[in-house]
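1st attempt posting a full record on here, be nice pls
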Amino acid sequence: MLRRFVFVSVVLALNIDATAQVNFSENIAPIIYSHCTKCHREGEIGGFGMTNYEEVSEIGSTILEVTSINFMPPWRPDPDYRHFLNENVLTQNEKDMIAE
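the predicted structure (as tokens):
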């Protein structure tokens, strides 16, 4: 009986974690702030701001498009060939969270 209880508890815990939704403050904001706001803020080269939820949510579909085709963040060297200091490349997990 105890084994069954432990098994059901583990399954339920895994299911709750699998259905956890991506949210801006916990999942997306760290990606945006570490990869995008260096350029996308007032006084920098990016043509618009990406410093808060409102600014990011207004262009969500554009962010999805440019990150899915590796147009943004701009980084031309092939990260599979060689690595450099201060690379600005999104991981597949980060792209998946943006897509979700």
